[in-house]
Structures are given as structure tokens and as C-alpha cells.
Amino acid sequence: MYNNILKQAFNNKIWAVIPVFNNAGTIHRIASECRSHLANVLVVDDGSTDGEVKQLLADLDVTVLRHAQNLGKGAALRTAFSHIQMEQGDYAITLDGDGQHSPDDIPAFIEQLEEDTIIIGNRRDITGDMPGRSRFGRRFSDFWVWLETGTFLRDTQSGFRAYPVKHVTQLKLRCRYYDFEIEVLARAAWAGLNFKQVPIKVYYAPPQERISSFRPFVDNLRISLTHTRLIGRNLNPWPKRRLVERDFSPSDFFRHPNVYLRSLLKENATPSGLAIAAWFGVFLGALPLIGMHMMTVIFVAARLRLNKAMALAIQNLCMPPVVPGICIAIGFFLRHGYPITQVSISHLGAAPIQRLWEWVLGSMVVAPLLATIVAAAVYLACSWMRNKLKKGNQS
After folding, report:
1. Residue at 347 is within a domain
2. Count of domains for the chain
3. Cβ-proximal residues to 382 (8 Å cutoff; 6+ apart), any chain
4. Which of 7, 139, 220, 371 could crosslink 282 through cysteines, CB 3.0-4.6 Å?
5. Other C-beta atoms lying within 10 Å of the C-beta of residue 373
């Protein structure tokens, strides 16, 4: 009896949130099924024009908020979070109102709820034909979120999520459309929040029945611009506000240097993670950053949460004289239209400004090419070693 009371009290702090825009045909069923799992269901009508949502849901015990005009999915979610906070709720489980998500997956989110964790639904059990652009969009988004946060998450475009309202409402979020669901993950990661993922079912209606407010050109452009802005902010050395402190901080190096060094070696130590670290290490190492290579590599690796040990070690491949000499030779050819005939230290130092300009030109060719070759080699070598270790452990 006592446990049931505690469970009921906990569930009363959880809200199902359904942002709606012109989903009159499906919203009643979705809201009703959500109500069977949770006492609190909030529908945000984002300026729908295909019917009065409040009237459609009049027979259900749910809360309906309305935007007078369409402001975007992100704006609808922010309205919902503010309302839940005002009602002293703790968690918001968001899902789409077009019937794509199954409310029967809500209990899987409830089981994983934690006050400093965002839970993302990973679309695995797929019914119907998933559009090709959606598959590409998932992979594209997952890569950029990983680059922005150092955390690899699957299905970062999934709208079926659970948010801790107290923390999310403290994030400085600017986006109001579909790009909101990208921005909130990046800023939550920077703020120290954790992530979990649960498998979910998803249904894709036939194209003739599918109702989507996603505008491919405009919304993909917004998402791309948001990724660009987030990458720029991640590279910005200005400190980010943290809401949750990490268990282990770089400042602990002086107290536990051996533990910290081991953590650096294990940081993003997958074949793909090491390959990307190698790419950036070689790319930056080939640029004419005279006297600043090591500092630049450390800074970029730290901001992008790359394997610092790999990035620092691999950039030594670009030490003088070989790679800079190749860059200068290629830059000379690009500048004059014929190959350089004399390469020596004295010749290279005779006109330092011209040689530096040629190094810049040549590095634009050499840096990405050499970085790609080295990254591919690192990936293949690490994959081979990992497979060999797996076979050794199985035997």
C-alpha cells in the first residue's frame, strides 16, 4: 500500500507532452492512450488550422494550451516546460501527435527517469517505410551532435524523449523550430546532464496519409545553421555554465594524476573516435601555426572531446622539414605555375613572407588529404586490433 502511494506521488510529477500542429485525425487517440499511462497530459496546440483541438479533446481529462499562431515545435515544447514547472512537475515525456510514436512505450521512459538525465527514444521497431531523407538525417545529426558534445547518441532527431524540467528550463535555448531538439541536447551535455536511450516503436503512415509540418528545405537549413553555431560555441574558450558537476574534473590531475592520464587514454577510444582525433591532429599539424601547433591541437581536442593523446601524438607526423616542405613546394606551384627547382633551408629562408604564403596555399591541399589518409589508416588499424582482441578473449 505504502509503495503504491509513493508510486502514485512520483507519477503525478510526470507529464506527457504532445505538441500539435494540424493533427486533428490522430490527436484524440494519442492523448487518450497517454492518459491511460499518466494522470497529467499536456497538449500544446501550435496554431492548428484543421480544427479546435480543445473541443476535440473535451471528453478527456487533459490540459490544452494554444498558440494563436504557429510558432514552431521548439516554441511549443518551451511553453509546455514552463507550464509544467509552474505546476511543480518534475519530468516531461514528449511525443509527437501524428501517430508516429506509441504511448505504450511511456513506461519504459518512466523506469529510467533521473533528475539529471535526458532520455531519448531510439527508433528500432519500425512499421512502414521510413523515408530515405529521415535515415540520412538521423546519421547526419548523430555525427554532428557527437562532434559538438563528445557524446555519441543514436537517433538524436527523435522527438520521443523524457526531460528533467528543472534543468532544461535553466538552459539558454534560442531555437523555436525542429532545431530545438538538437540545441537542447548540445547545451544539456555542456551543462553536465547525462543521457540514456530506450528502444521505441515507430509507425510511418503511407505517404498519401502522412501529415508532417517538417519543411525539408527551410527546416534542414535551420538545423544546419544551428549545428554551425553550436560548433562555433563549442570552440569558443569562454566557459559554459554547468548545472551538474562531473564526477571527475581535469583539476583532479594534481590529486590523482595516474587516474586522469588513464582517463585521457580511454577518451573516445573507439576506432572511429581515434580516427577523427587523428584527422584533426594531422590537419592542424600541417597548417603553418608556427610555435602554436601543440596548443592548438590540445585546445581543439578538448573542445570537441576528442582523444587528446592520439591528436597530440599523431600531429608529430607533420613536424619539419618533410610536410612543411611538401606544402611549400605545392604552394609554390600553385602560385607560379611551375615546380620549385631548389629546396634548401637557406633558399626557404631567403624570402620568409613568400614561403609562408606558399605554405598556407599548399597546406590547403596537403592538410585535408594527408589527414584523411592517416585517419583511414588509424581506423583500419584500430578495427583490426579490436577484432583481434575480441577473438583472443573468446578463445
Report:
1. yes
2. 2
3. 270, 271, 274, 275
4. 371
5. 12
271, 386 Cβ separation under 8 angstroms: yes
Assess whether 33 and 157 both reside in one domain: yes
Q: In whole angstroms, what is the distance from residue 68 CA to residue 88 CA?
A: 25
DSSP character at residue 121: E
Do 218 and 276 lie in one domain? The reply is no
Whether cis (ω within 30° of 0) applies to the bond prior to 216 is no
On the question of pLDDT at 305 being above 90, the answer is no
Tell me the pLDDT tens digit for each residue of 83-107. Answer: 999 999 999 999 998 888 999 999 9
pLDDT of the residue at 33: 95
pLDDT at 392: 64
Tell me how far apart the alpha carbons of residues 302 and 267 are, in angstroms, rounded to a whole number.
10
303 in helix, strand or coil? helix
Would you state the cell numbers that stand for residue 229, as one nine-digit string? 553555431
Instruction: Note the pLDDT tens digit of each residue in 117-161.
Output: 999 999 886 776 676 666 777 788 888 888 888 788 888 989 999
14-49 pLDDT per residue, tens: 999 999 999 888 999 999 999 999 999 999 999 999
Kindly state whether residues 328 and 227 are assigned to the same domain: no
| The predicted structure's pLDDT at residue 394 | 62
Q: For residue 128, is it within any domain?
A: yes
Q: Are residues 207 and 84 in the same domain?
A: yes
* Whether residue 334 sits in one domain with residue 289: yes
Query: Do 280 and 212 share a domain, yes or no?
Result: no
- Structural contact between residues 374 and 316, judged by C-beta atoms closer than 8 angstroms: no
For the stretch 47-81, pLDDT in tens is: 999 889 999 999 999 999 999 999 999 999 999 99
Q: Which three cell numbers stand for residue 93?
A: 515525456
- CA 205/CA 240 separation, integer angstroms: 41
- Pairwise CA distance, residues 37 & 104, whole Å: 8
Long-range contacts of 84-90 (CB under 8 A, 24+ apart): 84/15, 84/17, 84/42, 84/165, 85/165, 85/166, 85/169, 87/15, 87/40, 88/13, 89/13, 89/14, 89/15, 89/40, 89/165, 90/13, 90/14, 90/115, 90/164, 90/165, 90/166
Same domain for 99 and 32: yes
